[in-house]
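Curious: why this fold?
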Amino acid sequence: MPSISDSPAAPSQLRAIREVHGLTPQTLTDDLLASTEPLILRGLVSEWPATQAGLRSAADGDAYLRQFYRDATVNAMLGTPEIKGRFFYNEDVTGFNFFTTRARLDAVLAEMRDHLDDEQPPAIYVGSTTIETALPGFREANDLQLGARDPLASIWIGNRSRIAAHYDLPDNIACVVMGRRRFTLFPPEQLANLYVGPLDFTPAGQAISMVDFHQPDLQRFPRFAEALRHAHVAEMEPGDALFIPSMWWHHVEALDRFNVLVNYWWRQAPGYMDTPTNALMLAVLTMRGLPPEQRAAWQEIFRHYIFEPSEESLAHIPPHARHALAPLTEDGARVLRGQLLKRLNR
C-alpha cells in the first residue's frame, strides 16, 4: 500500500502556508483575522506562561495546567496502543476504535503522566473543552486580544494523536502551546477528493475524511492524489499559531508525548443565524431523493434566493411585504425558527 511519500504530492511538495512574524497577542489585526487563506503566525504565543512551562519539560507543562484545576470533569477519548493515536472508525464503520468517558481532568493528566515514557502508549485525548470550565483562570494569564470578537476558547490535551481531516464553520486560531503539531489543510473545493464519511455518524461531531494520511490507499481513494496537489502543510512549534479560515479542511497531528493546543472560534455572522449544517440535513430529508428534474429546479431556486440573491430580484415586492426575504434580524430569525419547528413537528 502506498504512503504519502510515494503519492503524487509528497510532504516536501505540499504547499507551504504564508507565514507572518513579529506579532503578539495584542497586535492581531482585522485584516489577518478576516483572511480567506490559512496563515502561520510564528511565535504568536511564545511568551505565554503556559508555553514557557511546556518548553522546560512535559512535567512542568503538566504542573502548570494543574494549578488551574478545580474539580472539572471532561470528555476523554481513550484508545489502545494499537490505534497509534488515530481516533477513527472501527474496521466495518459500525462504531469507533476508541471509547469516550467522563473523567476528572486531573485523573486524565495522571494517566498521561503514567505513560509518558512508554514507547507505544495508549491513546489519550481531551478534545474541545471550554477553558473557563476546565481550567478557570488560565485565560487571564494566556489569552489573545481579538477586538470586538467574542470567541469560544477551547483547550485540547493529549499525547500523540491523529485527527482526521474535517472542516469547521467558524474561523479559527489554533495556538500550539505544548508539543509540536502538523496541520495539513485543503481548500473547501477539495471536498469530493477527500472521501468524506457519514454526515450524522462521526467520531467527534464533524464529518471526516476516510483516508488514512499515513497510509493513503490510492486504489480505494484515487482522487486523494488530486487533493494532495492542493494541500497546504504547516509544521508548528510550541508558541506558533495557525489561522484556519472557515470551511477549510484540516488534518491535525500532535507529534510529541505531551501536547496542548488552545483555539479560538468565532463566526463572521450574527449569533442568531443557525448553522448551515441544519439546512444541509433538511435538504437530505426533503430534496436529495427527488427526481433529477426536480432537483435541478430546486437548485435554481437556491441559486436565485440564497447563493446569488440580488436587490433587483426583490424589487417587485414592497419592502414591508418581503418577510423571510427581508434582511435577517434576530426577531426574524426567531420567527423563521418557530415556523420550521412547527412544520417539522407536524
